Amino acid sequence: MSPPIFRQAVDALRAVQPRPELRLVDIAAPRRLAPHSFALGVELADDVHTPVSSLDADVDATGRLVLLYDPDARDAWAGTFRMVCYLRAPLDVEQADDPLLLAVGWSWLTDALDGAYASYTALGGTVTRTCSARFGDIPGPTRSDDVELRASWTPTDSEFGRHAEAFYRLVTHAIGLPEVGVSLMTDRHS
User: Fold this and answer.
1) In a domain, 49, yes or no
2) What is the DSSP letter of 72?
3) What average pLDDT does the segment 122-138 reach?
4) C-beta of residue 154 within 8 angstroms of C-beta of residue 84
5) Which three-class secondary structure state does DSSP give residue 77?
6) Residue 58 CA: distances (Å) to CA of 25, 46, 51, 54, 129
7) pLDDT digits (tens, 9 = 90+) for 30-87
8) Are 19 and 42 in contact, with CB atoms under 8 Å apart?
9) Residue 24: inside a domain, yes or no?
10) Relative to the CA of 103, which of 4, 76, 109, 173 has its CA 20 to 30 Å away?
């Protein structure tokens, strides 16, 4: 049985719903990282078109947010809770070739955390750019580019919903969706 403090944190994460362009998916929580863990996953809804998805119908963007709890506080965590996130999103060629992509990708996370007023410490992670090319008789685009972000941080308050909100902001930004309430010039009709 999970302790009440962990169940409350999970309830706070579940209470925050992503934008309609994203759908929640069931994923298993890692079992070996901490005595108590919870995970949620998101992916792009089938009927959503982003700037990248307009280039290829098979766009696959995914994200995972994991909550870890160890009542025996870990020094490396600087607390008893730890948030872990993973994001993989497609890029267009121009984005993929940008020499600042890795630093910009990291700023997507820090901006999302700050924008959601999620308090944190001990933030660390990686941003990776991948490029694949197809040759011969393999169907599909000749080139595909992705960005992967892996990060973890320790919440410094009990506002876990803010961390879920930050995660959803990160995902929607990475896949090119505008902020809620913002319209793009291309969205306007004459």
Assistant:
1) yes
2) E
3) 87
4) no
5) coil
6) 18, 10, 13, 10, 19
7) 989 999 999 999 988 776 555 544 444 445 778 999 999 999 877 889 999 999 999 9
8) no
9) yes
10) 76
Question: Looking at this protein, which amino acid is placed at residue 47?
Answer: D
Structure tokens at 169: 């902001």
Q: Is residue 96 part of a domain?
A: yes
Residue type, 84: V
For CA atoms 25, 20, 83, 152, give the dihedral sign: positive
Residue 189, amino acid: H
Number of domains, the chain: 1
Sheet containing 143-155, strands listed edge to edge, beginning at the edge strand earlier in sequence = 22-25, 36-44, 62-74, 79-91, 143-155, 120-133
Strand partners, 21: none
Does a structural domain hold residue 16?
yes
Give the span between the Cα atoms of 131 and 101, in whole angstroms. 13
Q: Could you list the residue range(s) of the whole structural domain that residue 27 is in?
A: 4-178
158: phi then psi, degrees, rounded to nearest 5: -100, 20
**Helix H segments across the chain?**
4-15, 93-96, 101-115, 160-174
φ and ψ of 182, to 5 deg: -105, 130
What pTM was computed for the model?
Answer: 0.83
For residue 18, how many C-alpha atoms fall within 13 Å in the half-sphere facing its CB? 24
What is the Cα–Cα distance from 105 to 173, expressed in whole angstroms? 10
